[in-house]
Design goal:
Length: 323
């Protein structure tokens, strides 16, 4: 392996810069030339590719977003788009590609590497934490901290006014951010896609809290939950529990920004180095992850298809603590 391309793709996540930095510096450490592909797969299609050097990645470790820019490339979903990408892959004489992103980006990486027999390695970068083959994805810890910090602030005003708040968090079809920010923020309940909650069960929980003179009530709603969005859940609850003064906050994209936590920086640094070392040792069509604090390589197809389940333990803990 003499020349590697690196790109970030899909929704950005805090720590992506740290991962790019680690890939670039590990390449240079091992005498491999490294090229930044700008704006995700679109950059490969449009030859938006530049060589990166050790100082190209100075002062980005602490920055959110991705200096390589990112996109959800529609063109890469087409065979013609991927052919153009492969042309540029060859033109720049690349031997392998490192893709930092989530499941959509890895689906593209998997198809590309199979179609053209190109060595590809994925680094999990998404706030959603919805990839198997790693305990945590890069950006998840920062997003949880951001959401939990917001919940702390909402709790202040919720208790002053004795209001019930519904806080909607991101996570696409997964409830990892919801569960972690809810437990960390002491929410009275969390509604997530993985758990079959009903409006009736939620109302029961809130009634019990009210009967126990609960001082503040924050319910965390995962954006992908079956009961609807936070406004719809709030409306349904309001119909039954008219005595609550209810407000809704949707945290939205602020969860995607900000300086990465130490956990995310360290994870990104370890996975970035392991991606380059994996390629050197012949790994391909795999995602590099961290399981029980050890580097693990999982076939990309498996990482995106295997459902990563939320543990029942979290629900048990939340229930015990929300009384
Ligand atoms: O995958 C990351 C994520 O932030 C999800 O949590 C969310 O559903 C989605 O991306 C939002 O996508 P966009 O930035 O395209 O609106």
């Amino acid at each position: 392996i003499k020349r590697i391309g690196v790109l970030t793709s899909g929704g950005d996540a805090p720590g992506m810069n740290a991962a790019v930095r680690a890939v670039v510096r590990a390449c240079i450490y091992y005498d491999i030339e490294v090229f930044g592909v700008y704006k995700g797969y679109d950059g490969l299609i449009n030859a938006n590719i530049k060589q990166l050097y050790v100082r190209s990645v100075s002062n980005i470790l602490s920055r959110g977003g991705t200096f390589l820019l990112t996109a959800r490339s529609e063109e890469f979903r087409t065979k013609e788009g991927r052919e153009k990408a492969y042309e540029n892959f060859k033109k720049f004489d690349l031997d392998a590609l490192v893709v930092i992103g989530g499941d959509g980006s890895f689906t593209g990486a998997n198809i590309f590497s199979q179609e053209f027999d190109v060595p590809v390695i994925g680094i999990p970068g998404t706030i959603d934490n919805d990839l198997a083959g790693t305990d945590f994805t890069i950006g998840f810890d920062t997003a949880c901290n951001t959401a939990r910090e917001a919940i702390d602030k909402i709790r202040d005003t919720a208790s002053s006014h004795e209001r019930l708040f519904f806080v909607e968090v991101m996570g696409r079809d997964a409830g990892f951010i919801a569960v972690n920010s809810a437990i960390g923020g002491g929410a009275v309940a969390m509604v997530v896609p993985e758990h079959n909650w009903t409006i009736d069960a939620l109302i029961k929980r809130l009634r019990k809290g009210a009967a126990n003179k609960k001082a503040s009530n924050v319910v965390v709603i995962a954006e992908g939950c079956q009961l609807g969005n936070a406004y719809e859940v709030a409306d349904a609850v309001k119909k039954e529990l008219g005595y609550f003064d209810i407000r809704v906050t949707v945290l939205g994209h602020l969860q995607r920004g900000g300086s990465p936590t130490t956990m995310d920086r360290v994870l990104a640094s370890r996975l970035g180095v392991a991606a380059v070392e994996g390629l050197r040792h012949g790994e391909s069509k795999v995602m590099v992850g961290m399981i029980n604090n050890e580097i693990a390589y999982t076939p990309i197809g498996q990482a995106i298809k295997t459902e990563k389940r939320l543990g029942a333990e979290e629900f048990r803990i939340a229930k015990i603590l929300s009384i």
